[in-house]
UniProtKB/TrEMBL annotation:
This is F-box only protein 39. Substrate-recognition component of the SCF (SKP1-CUL1-F-box protein)-type E3 ubiquitin ligase complex. The keyword Metal-binding does not apply. PANTHER family: F-BOX INVOLVED IN POLYQ PATHOGENESIS, ISOFORM A (PTHR20933:SF4), F-BOX ONLY PROTEIN 33 (PTHR20933). It comes from Dromaius novaehollandiae (Emu). Keywords: Ubl conjugation pathway. Directly interacts with SKP1 and CUL1. InterPro entries: F-box-like_dom_sf, F-box_dom, LRR_dom_sf. SMART domains: FBOX. CDD domains: F-box_FBXO39. The keyword Magnesium does not apply. One of its GO terms (biological process) is positive regulation of protein ubiquitination.
Length: 463
């Protein structure tokens, strides 16, 4: 470390603390440690608590030397400045054998034990995609990790406000024990956001479990809950209505083909919850659940649905048709639906007219993502309706056209203001006021090569 009296360093050493903290905020761990060598004042800035409130630790299943160094450095800093930590994210990437999961478990045992003793500020914890049901997790290692995590949650439960255990894949008993850890100190929890999507192992009918109902009943201030449809029941909705109706704003519900989803849920239960939680928005994410009768059992008219995502993935059924869903089911949400995602394999039926009518009937729909076989004429009509303010779409993501027509660029984009279009390759752009492109100007002002270039650009932007 250089002497503070060095005249060449005086201007840097005299930087205000707020400026130093801002500089250090944008540096990674290695650069921070180097910057701390400038002078004593910069060294003291390194110990500012505001720099260590948020940390991400990545445990790579196939670690390179660089990954190993980054992990060990991040771990060292978390232990050194753990008392300042408020937001912690832990990532376990691609563990491919039992040795790595054992190493991860031992590392987390030491880390969580240390934080449990020195930290009283943690409000956010995220450990996603553990997949504890994989064979790389030996039973003893798995049990020890869950025990360590449960102990840590008990210690942090008083001030923890956000928990994300998406993809943990635990048993029903293990999962309920972890959820109960959040209410350990006061027999109730005031956590506001919980993500337990894919938290339980596949194929479990969680909706019929009294253990799960008891665990959820201890949450008294939920604002956002993310989970799977196999957890939904009349009892669960009544519990949410009773204990979190005053605070609940968002339910994110995933329904996968392999999760049990045949349970009967009454519309009255949804209506009661919507009445008790008037600002509630429900977002549905369907994966391979595409048949109309299955969807009709789930998508009840009493649900205040804000967003629907239908993804067929590898769904294949020669008798399946998307048309009844577009005509009979989704229009029930025309007054509330704001986001719609359709990723379907409709090579056996055209859906242009049905989809366009649905979009025009949904007066609050501002986001549309479609991965399907549609004609370019459909996009022309959609953009024309958007230009005429017959719909309020601001973001359109589209891929998969059945045909191409000349003249698309001037006809479709004329008068389009403020719409964001995303091409299949991922390039996005927001269109400002449209250029004056009446057809006669198009024919008069542009040469053949220019027309070809502009048409190519239009396809890149829209497709």
């Amino acid at each position: 470390m250089e002497d503070d009296s060095d005249p060449e360093q005086s201007c840097w050493a005299g930087l205000p603390d707020v400026c130093l903290r801002h500089i250090f905020h944008w540096l990674d761990d290695r650069d921070r440690s180097r910057a701390a060598l400038v002078c004593k004042k910069w060294s003291r800035a390194m110990y500012s608590g505001s720099l260590w409130r948020t940390r991400t630790i990545t445990f790579n299943g196939r670690p390179s030397r660089a990954h190993t160094f980054e992990f060990e450095t991040a771990l060292w800093y978390v232990k050194k400045f753990g008392k300042y930590l408020e937001h912690l994210e832990i990532k376990l990437l691609n563990p491919y054998n039992a040795v790595l999961t054992r190493k991860f478990q031992v590392t987390m045992r030491g880390l969580l034990s240390h934080l449990g003793k020195c930290n009283s500020r943690l409000v956010s914890l995220s450990i996603q995609h553990l997949e504890l049901d994989r064979v790389v997790w030996k039973s003893m290692v798995r049990a020890q990790f869950i025990k360590n995590l449960g102990t840590f949650l008990k210690r942090m439960s008083k001030h923890l406000d956000y928990l994300n255990l998406k993809g943990a894949r635990v048993t029903l008993e293990e999962g309920c024990d972890l959820l109960n850890s959040l209410s350990y100190l006061r027999n109730k929890s005031f956590i506001s956001e919980v993500n337990i999507e894919d938290f339980f192992s596949l194929h479990l009918p969680i909706y019929s479990s009294t253990l799960f109902h008891q665990a959820v009943s201890k949450f008294h201030s939920l604002v956002i809950l993310t989970f799977n449809y196999n957890c939904i029941s009349d009892e669960l909705l009544d519990i949410l209505c009773k204990h979190s109706g005053h605070s609940l704003r968002t339910l994110n519900i995933k329904c996968h083909i392999h999760d049990p989803h045949g349970q009967v849920v009454w519309g009255m239960s949804w209506a009661n919850l919507a009445k008790r939680a008037p600002r509630l928005n429900v977002n549905f994410f369907f994966e391979r659940v595409m048949k109309h009768d299955h969807l009709a059992r789930i998508l009840l008219v009493e649900i205040p649905v804000r967003s629907i995502s239908l993804r067929s993935c590898y769904f294949s059924d020669p008798d399946w048709t998307m048309r009844p869903t577009l005509i009979n089911l989704l229009p029930a949400y025309r007054h509330v639906l704001q986001k719609l995602t359709l990723e379907v394999n409709n090579d056996h039926e055209l859906l242009d007219d049905e989809l366009l009518q649905l979009i025009l009937s949904c007066k609050r729909l501002f986001f549309l993502k479609v991965w399907a076989f549609l004609s370019v004429t459909f996009m022309e009509k959609l953009l024309q309706n958007r230009a005429e303010k017959k719909c309020i779409l601001t973001t359109i993501k589209k891929s998969g056209f059945a045909q191409h027509r000349q003249g698309l660029f001037p006809a479709a984009l004329q008068g389009l203001h403020g719409a964001s279009l995303l091409c299949a390759g991922g390039a996005a752009g927001r269109l400002g006021p449209a250029p004056p492109f009446p057809q006669e100007t198009w024919e008069r002002e542009y040469s053949g090569m220019e027309k070809q270039r502009l048409l190519s650009l239009a396809v890149r932007v829209i497709v």
